[in-house]
Design goal:
The complex is a heterodimer.
Chain A (H helix, E strand, L loop, with lengths): L1 H16 L3 H21 L4 H21 L8 H19 L18 H24 L3 H10 L4 H8 L4 H23 L3
Chain B lengths: L2 H18 L5 H13 L1 H40 L10 H20 L4 E2 L5 E2 L5 H31 L13 E9 L3 E5 H4 L5 E4 L5 E10 L4 E6 L13 E2 L9 E6 L6 E9 L9 E5 L10 E4 L3 E10 L5 E6 L1 H13 L4 H4 L14 H8 L3 E6 L1
Helix pairs in contact in B: 1-3, 2-3
Classes of the chains: A mainly alpha, B alpha+beta.
């Protein structure tokens, strides 16, 4: 019995790493209520619960993708520990933190390193997000088409109304240089 | 930087990208590695660009994952498999996400941030006020149903032929306006971007099925065509379209559907360029709300000068509009794409406004039947 649970969880993590909807859905539905209860019992709202749970899912996602996730505990325990840590930090930041969180029965593991690492990555994510949004159009859509949607220069030239792929390439180059400049100017401040 | 240098840089960067993404032939790869050894600048560029592409890739993976999370969250809460309140859409989430980012953005550039797709309204949300809205909509649907039943009975009496369209629950809305009497409307691309079904609703609450015939994410313009047997062609729109740029401080007004009823707003042109100097759009000072996306922006002559598409966070009434010359471009693009379409061929944007010299209230009266609510799901 124990083995099959372990196998099941490994399968779910593998699916998670590949952004497989079915796996994410299973993990989501099995753990959301637990974490929502934790947040609601500790002066949070349902919106907070959603944010915190999804952030914990991001931490798990990165962990699963890194490939070196040793399943030393169940997914549930891991998510719970991460969410708890994140919520404590948030309460601290907003000065709403009074004593320890009101929870006793759930088992927990130490996840401080993972959470810290996640926060660094999250800062980078925000930076990339703002950088891309600072670009303006058509640069934003053009770079997204090339790097995220894997469109060819030919397709991009047609979609954006450039006379040929060469012109589109020149435009892409300019946009990319701007993006890098914006991004790295913040990145170095870290 | 002179042109020759720039060209060299473009070629070099292209090579670096293909090298990093392993898109080189073995020969080319060997050559490139040689170059990398000899030229430390090239080597530095490879290192730096690899790092950047990694970050870009991770950003993309995260974004996709977040999208999945939100879809699943909504899906599960609607199905009741998790206890979260349902109906909170992705748009709202993006809005929340931005709150966090806004702090960073403001500290970097000293500029308040922009919610690009922030003004598509949400028809079904969970606050008490919105429940009221849902209620109102239910009544609407009921009224429509009985109207339809009456019509059906009539039809049965007359000929026995009935046309039945199933009710579709729409979740988000924006605004659109007629550009041609045969049922072509223009709105924002971000309003219809992820739509499966699109319908437009006139001032009387009549709903017509529409199809997206043109979309351009770069200019944020979309063209819709009403494809509904119930739709009867309108007289030509009274307003004109102008390619000329409007002068600073010139008064402008807009009509849109931030809620069930049409709403008039008044303001002035505050900058000839949009957010961050974007030349496709312009900046206006006007009250813009969710649901105003796609509203026409008129000058005092009743000429369309733009389409309202975004507002700036934390900056009062600052909003942005796509300049109307982009509508001209969109229409000619559309014509080029389907040269055999005879209806399309005859569409021309009216450049002469028949509203010159009228009072705002008179202008509004003549315009309002040409403004539609765009409903999507």
């Amino acid at each position: 019995m124990k083995d099959s649970i372990l196998e099941q969880e490994l399968g779910l993590l593998k699916g998670l790493a590949n952004n497989d909807k079915k796996s994410i859905e299973i993990i989501y539905s099995q753990n959301y209520n637990l974490i929502q209860a934790l947040i609601l019992n500790n002066s949070g709202t349902t919106d907070d619960a959603k944010d915190i749970f999804q952030e914990a899912m991001m931490v798990l996602f990165d962990k699963a993708r890194s490939g070196n996730f040793e399943l030393s505990c169940q997914i549930r325990t891991y998510l719970y520990s991460v969410a708890r840590r994140l919520w404590l930090k948030k309460l601290n930041q907003t000065h709403r933190y009074t004593a320890d969180l009101d929870d006793t029965q759930e088992t927990r593991v130490v996840v401080d390193d993972d959470v810290n690492e996640h926060e660094e990555k999250d800062a980078e994510f925000e930076m990339m997000y703002t950088s891309i949004n600072h670009l303006g159009e058509p640069c934003k859509s053009l770079l997204e088409a090339f790097y995220f949607k894997n469109k060819s220069m030919q397709e991009i030239a047609e979609d954006f109304g450039y006379t040929n792929a060469e012109n589109a390439k020149t435009q892409k180059y300019k946009c990319l240089m701007r993006l890098k400049k914006i991004f790295f100017s913040q990145y170095k401040k870290l | 930087m002179n042109d020759l240098n720039k060209e060299r840089d473009i070629i070099l960067l292209d090579a670096v990208e293909r090298y990093v993404m392993s898109n080189m032939t073995p020969d080319e790869r060997l050559q490139f590695e040689q170059l990398r050894k000899e030229d430390s600048d090239v080597d530095q560029m490879v290192v730096e660009h690899t790092l950047f592409l990694q970050k870009l890739n991770r950003f993309n993976q995260w974004k996709k994952f977040q999208t999945s999370l939100n879809e699943i969250h909504n899906h599960l809460s609607v199905q009741g498999k998790i206890n979260a309140p349902s109906g909170k859409g992705k748009l709202v989430y993006l809005f929340n996400r931005f709150k966090k980012t806004a702090v960073i953005a403001a500290s970097i550039a000293g500029i308040t941030t922009l919610i690009i797709s922030g003004i598509i309204g949400s028809v079904t949300t969970k606050t008490p006020k919105d429940q009221f809205e849902i209620l109102k909509k239910d009544i609407h649907t009921l009224a429509k149903k009985s109207e339809r039943q009456d019509q059906e009975i009539n039809n049965l009496k007359q000929s026995g032929i009935t046309a039945q369209t199933p009710e579709i629950p729409y979740t988000n809305s924006g605004t659109g306006f007629i550009i041609d009497s045969k049922g072509f409307l223009v709105t924002n691309n971000h309003v219809v971007e992820k739509a499966q079904n699109v319908a437009v609703q006139n001032r009387d609450g009549k709903e017509f099925i529409a199809k997206v015939v043109y979309r351009n994410p770069a200019t944020d313009i979309a063209i819709l065509k009403i494809e509904d047997p119930d739709f009867k062609p309108l007289p030509a729109p009274p307003y004109g379209f102008t390619k000329k740029s409007t002068d600073l401080a010139e008064p402008i007004f807009t009509l849109g559907y931030p809620r069930e009823d049409i709403v008039y707003g008044q303001g002035y042109l505050s900058s000839k360029t949009g957010y961050n100097g974007d030349t496709l759009s312009c900046q206006i000072d006007i009250r813009a709300e969710r649901g105003n996306s796609g509203s026409p922006v008129f000058n005092s002559n009743g000429e369309v000068i733009g389409i309202l598409n975004a507002r700036q966070r934390d900056a009062g009434g600052v909003a942005f509009a796509v300049q109307s010359r982009n509508i001209f471009n969109a229409l000619s693009d559309l014509k080029e794409k389907s040269p055999s379409d005879s209806i399309l061929k005859n569409i021309k944007l009216n450049t002469k406004s028949s509203l010159i010299g009228l009072k705002p209230s008179q202008q509004t009266k003549k315009i309002q039947d040409y403004i539609y609510m765009v409903k999507v799901n």
